[in-house]
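Input (structure):
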């Protein structure tokens, strides 16, 4: 709990957006919590910057109604903390960790922890090496998510990123978690969402029953934008508790990081800082790193934190500062495609633009199946050839293509409408492998040059086919 106030100040010099500029505060520290009391009630804030004469305070609520004459700033001599306990599981909280699900206050609080978390000692970081099954074929087989990885999803305005996020939250897990050997938890943090989107998420999680195996944070668009800066840090503090105190494998889904960065830009503008690219603060890289680098596995501890941040690309621009910097920090990307979405294919994932840099650490005989890598490579090669032939067909027409080239067109159509387009259903890895083989066996045997011949014979005979 917050401590009793020690000192109060009436020396507010000015108010700019969500910031207070207060004179002559002594003995304060960066990150310290303050309580702001006015004629309209009270709110809390956090000290962002301290100079010899001025202290900049970020207010968590609205600053409307505050004025230098009617407000007192009390130093709380504490930092922002969040209550932690097993009772958080199944709860929906707002961006300030207050329950908003109508289930009453959080009970059985075991500890309070600062939301900045603890930096993972690089020496104690353990290399990710276990497969996390998302239930999405294009991810599980071709861009595998590994326990402890940071794998962002890059999307565009109007693409169904929220639906994909909900689907992963509903279906993700590990083989060990499915048979009860290792506990698995989803921490879902939505930032800057509308009431309609919040309603969709609530309904999706309740109907699937996934509400009981997760902790959910909803920061609405109508909430103060400052809460968007707190939300991912609160979610990750909860994840660290379940992962490193209780031994859970935790999947953290953060949507949308563009809204988070826009809140950073708003605060930076109010502080009159020199802007960087497109007006975003120059320190945005290190700020994003302070969030993304809280994922990982620690040697000697059972739990793990895996992150899937979702980033909207304005104008589908991969070079926009937010997806660009996210790509530098994380280990790959899943890219959503507008043309696939236009054909009502879900999830509209462009596998040729997607990549999981840690994929090889979580696949193979000991994790998935021995042929996982070669099967994925064959799908990539065949789909890339299909894309080339689509462009060639537009120039010379279908009659100018050879029978082999026509078989690639059949493969590509089946791959997109059958393998990629799985709708709102979960596919196990075994079902994904079957779908992949069904697509590949439309090609001549000599074109499957990335697969061992014995495996091709085995799978073709299983289906009653002869090459």
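Output (sequence):
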């Amino acid at each position: 709990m917050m401590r009793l106030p020690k000192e109060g100040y009436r020396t507010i010099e000015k108010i700019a957006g969500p910031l207070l500029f207060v004179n002559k505060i002594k003995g304060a520290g960066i990150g310290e919590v303050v309580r702001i009391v006015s004629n309209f009630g009270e709110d809390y804030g956090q000290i962002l910057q301290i100079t010899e004469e001025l202290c900049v305070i970020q207010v968590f609520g609205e600053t409307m109604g505050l004025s230098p004459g009617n407000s007192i700033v009390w130093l709380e001599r504490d930092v922002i903390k969040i209550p932690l306990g097993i009772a958080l599981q199944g709860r929906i909280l707002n961006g300030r960790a207050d329950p908003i699900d109508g289930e009453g206050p959080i009970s059985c609080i075991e500890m309070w922890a600062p939301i900045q978390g603890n930096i993972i000692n690089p020496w104690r970081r353990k290399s990710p090496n276990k497969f996390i099954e998302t239930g999405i074929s294009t991810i599980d087989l071709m861009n595998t998510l590994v326990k402890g990885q940071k794998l962002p999803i890059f999307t565009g305005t109007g693409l169904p990123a929220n639906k994909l996020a909900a689907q992963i939250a509903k279906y993700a897990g590990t083989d060990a978690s499915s048979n009860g050997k290792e506990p698995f938890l989803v921490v879902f943090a939505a930032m800057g969402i509308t009431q309609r989107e919040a309603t969709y998420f609530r309904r999706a999680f309740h109907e699937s029953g996934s509400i009981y195996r997760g902790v959910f944070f909803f920061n609405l668009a109508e909430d103060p934008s400052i809460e968007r800066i707190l939300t991912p840090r609160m979610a990750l503090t909860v994840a660290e508790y379940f992962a490193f105190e209780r031994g859970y494998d935790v999947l953290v889904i953060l949507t949308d990081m563009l809204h988070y960065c826009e809140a950073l830009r708003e605060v930076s503008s109010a502080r009159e800082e020199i802007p960087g690219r497109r007006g975003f603060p120059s320190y945005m890289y290190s700020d994003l790193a302070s969030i993304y680098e809280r994922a990982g596995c620690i040697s000697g501890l059972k739990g793990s934190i895996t992150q899937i941040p979702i980033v909207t690309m304005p104008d589908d621009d991969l070079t926009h500062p937010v997806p660009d910097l996210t790509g530098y920090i994380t280990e790959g990307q899943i890219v959503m495609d507008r043309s696939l979405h236009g054909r009502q294919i879900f999830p509209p994932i462009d596998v040729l633009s997607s990549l999981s840099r840690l994929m090889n650490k979580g696949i193979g005989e000991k994790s998935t199946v021995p042929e996982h890598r070669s099967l994925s490579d064959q799908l990539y090669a065949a789909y890339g050839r299909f894309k080339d032939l689509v462009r060639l067909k537009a120039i010379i027409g279908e009659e100018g293509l050879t029978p082999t080239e026509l078989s690639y067109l059949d493969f590509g159509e089946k791959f997109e409408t059958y393998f990629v387009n799985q709708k709102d259903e979960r596919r196990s890895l075994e079902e994904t492998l079957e779908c992949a083989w069904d697509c590949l066996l439309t090609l001549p045997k000599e074109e499957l040059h990335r697969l061992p011949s014995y495996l091709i014979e085995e799978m073709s005979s299983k289906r009653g086919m002869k090459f």
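Notes: The first strand starts at residue 7 and ends at 9. The radius of gyration is 25 Å.
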